[in-house]
Amino acid sequence: MNYPKVNIQTAVLATDGGYSVSLTTDKFARGVFMSINGIDNFFEDNYFDILPGKTVTTKVRCNISQDEFKKQLKITSLSD
Fold first, then answer.
1. Within-domain flag for 71
2. Mean pLDDT of the chain
3. Is residue 15 in some structural domain?
4. For residue 3, is it within any domain?
5. Long-range contacts from 56-60, C-beta under 8 angstroms, 24+ separation
6. pLDDT tens column, 25-47
7. Positive or negative CA dihedral for 62, 64, 66, 72?
8. Fewest 10 Å CB contacts: which of 28, 52, 61, 78?
9. Which residues in 16-35 are b (16+ Cβ under 10 Å) and which e?
């Protein structure tokens, strides 16, 4: 399958014990996967689809600063 290249927008908010990550996209995003290199992290939900104009929000437990979290967060989809 050739999925179109997508532009995924990310919003990160601090929560108790980690962060809330909200993702939106301009086109259908298939198999979106988030990761953080070099640390143990526990995403509430991962590897999902996002429809255009819809927002998917998930939480991740970790103990790094918000700036470092944003820097380390990697988001990929099957179009990458």
1. yes
2. 91
3. yes
4. no
5. 56/22, 56/23, 56/24, 56/32, 57/20, 57/21, 57/22, 57/23, 58/20, 58/21, 58/34, 59/15, 59/18, 59/19, 59/20, 59/21, 60/18, 60/19, 60/21, 60/34, 60/36
6. 999 999 999 998 866 668 888 89
7. negative
8. 52
9. eebbebebbbebebeebebe
Looking up residue 49, the CATH number of its domain turns out to be 2.60.40.10
Residue 72 lies in a domain: yes
Number of domains in the chain: 1
Task: Judge contact between 58 and 32, C-beta under 8 A.
Answer: no
- Specify the pLDDT at position 14: 96
- pLDDT in the model for residue 49: 96
Domain that holds residue 58: 8-76
